[in-house]
Amino acid sequence: MSVSMTDLRKQFSACGENVIVDPNAIIHAPQCLSVGNNVTIMHGFHLHDALRIGRIGNDVTIYPNVFIQGSSELIIEDHVTLYPGVYLSTGNSEKSFIHIGHHSHFAPNAVLYGHGGLTIGPYCNIASHVVLATVGHDHHVTDIPMALAPSVAGPITLEQDIWIGANATIIANTHIAQGCVIGANSVLTKDTKPRGIYMGIPAKWVKDR
User: Fold this and answer.
1) Which of 40, 136, 155, 201 is at a distance of 20 to 30 A from 59, taking alpha carbons?
2) Which residues sit opposite 53 in a β-bridge?
3) For residues 95 and 113, is the Cβ–Cβ distance under 8 A?
4) Which residues have C-beta within 8 Å of that of residue 145, sequence separation ≥ 6?
5) Which of 35, 32, 29 is nearest to 14 (CA)?
6) Is there a contact between 17 and 38 (Cβ–Cβ < 8 Å)?
7) Is the pTM of this model over 0.85?
C-alpha cells in the first residue's frame, strides 16, 4: 500500500533532513527504504515492490516518472541523479541487485536490469536510452517460443569514470574497465581494457583516450 508524502517520511526505515517527496509519488512498502539528507523525489515516481534492501544516499535527485520494480537490493550512493523516465528492475532472486556509485547520473529513459547483478561505479555517465541488460531470453531453447523460454542472467560491472553513449546496449557477463567510453548505438558483448574507446555492433576497441 502506498502512502502520502507526510506519512512517507515517518515510515521510511530511516529518513534524513531536507527530504522532499512529491505527493503524487507512489512508494510501496516505504519501511523497506532508507533515505539520506537532501533527497528530492519528484512527481510520477513509482517504487512498485518491497525491496529486500533499499537505500538512497545523500544529495540524490530523482526526476519525474522514474519507475523501479523488483524485490531485490537497490543501493543508490550520494550525489546520484536519475533523470525523467529512467527504469530500474532489481530482479527478485538472491543474486539480483543494483548498486549505483556516487556522482553517477542517468539521462532520460535509461534502462537498468539487476537480475544478474548490476554494479555501477562512481562518476559514471549513462546517456539516454542506454540498456544495461543483465538478463535475457535463452535463445538456445528451440522447442518453445523464446518468449516462453527461461531467462538467463549474468553480471554487468562498470568501474569508475565510464561514459556510455546514447542508445548503447551492454550485454550480460560484461566488465567495463575504468575510464572507458562506449560509443552511441554500440552493443558491448565483451570485457574492455582501461581508458579505451569502444564502438560498433559488436563494439570493438577503436583507440585509447
Assistant:
1) 155
2) 73
3) no
4) none
5) 35
6) yes
7) yes
HEC-encoded secondary structure of the chain: CECCHHHHHHHCCEECCCCEECCCCEEECHHHEEECCCCEECCCCEECCCCCEEEECCCCEECCCCEEECCCEEEECCCCEECCCCEEECCCCCCCEEEECCCCEECCCCEEECCCCEEECCCCEECCCCEEECEEECCCCCCCCHHHCCEEECCEEECCCCEECCCCEEECCEEECCCCEECCCCEECCCCCCCEEEECCCCEEEEEC
Question: If you count them, how many residues does the chain have?
Answer: 209
Cell output for 113: 536490469
Pairwise CA distance, residues 180 & 195, whole Å: 4
Domain ranges of the chain: 5-208
pLDDT value at residue 55: 98
Q: What is the pLDDT of residues 97-107, one digit of tens each?
A: 999 999 999 99
Amino acid at 3: V
What CATH number does domain 5-208 carry, 1.50.10.10, 3.30.1330.10, 2.102.10.10, 2.160.10.10? 2.160.10.10
State which amino acid sits at residue 123.
Answer: Y
- 71-127 pLDDT, tens digit per residue, is 999 999 999 999 999 999 999 999 999 999 999 999 999 999 999 999 999 999 999
